[in-house]
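From the pipeline queue, job 12 of 40. The input is one protein chain; the requested action is below.

Action: predict structure.
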Amino acid sequence: MKRLNLVLVVAMVGLGLTAIGCGGSGGDAPAEEAAAPAAAPTLPPPSLGEGAEGEERPRFIAPIRGIAELAYLQPDTDVVSGEVVTKITVQNRATGAIAGLKIDEYWWDADGNPLPGDSERLRQPLMPGEVATIELRVPRNSRMNRNNYNFSHANGEIKATLVPELPDPEPGEAEEGEDGEPPDGEPT
């Protein structure tokens, strides 16, 4: 019988604490809280089709699935304070965004034994035509002889192509000079 009484007391205390915690006090709200909503002006929510002046809504570009095309420049490798720093400039040549672009760098010695490498992932999707620079850092090892790069993304593989230079921006994106002429000085 004592156990039943103990169970009932614990249940009642738990129920009471739950009711208080959930705001079930049943009392009226203080006058300050009741007056606050009446004093605040209500604004209609902005419609989805209208934006602030001069502000363009970001467009969603679906990430590519499967094999994506990527162009990259010859990697620039330097030794900086005991680390081998490799900078790779890449450009998305696919029709969709590349989500989770990842570059792995592998190092080997002269005998073909693997050495430590590095891996870096872009946090933001790489939009079509966008150029990004990725930096890889590896501790310097005197046995380093050659390296290799592996490109991948979150939804598949990358077909990477080494190019001598990345193409210039589109002609419509070129900035005009102060006098309204194109940058090369030729009249239009």
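Job complete. Confidence is low (pLDDT under 50) at residues 172-180.
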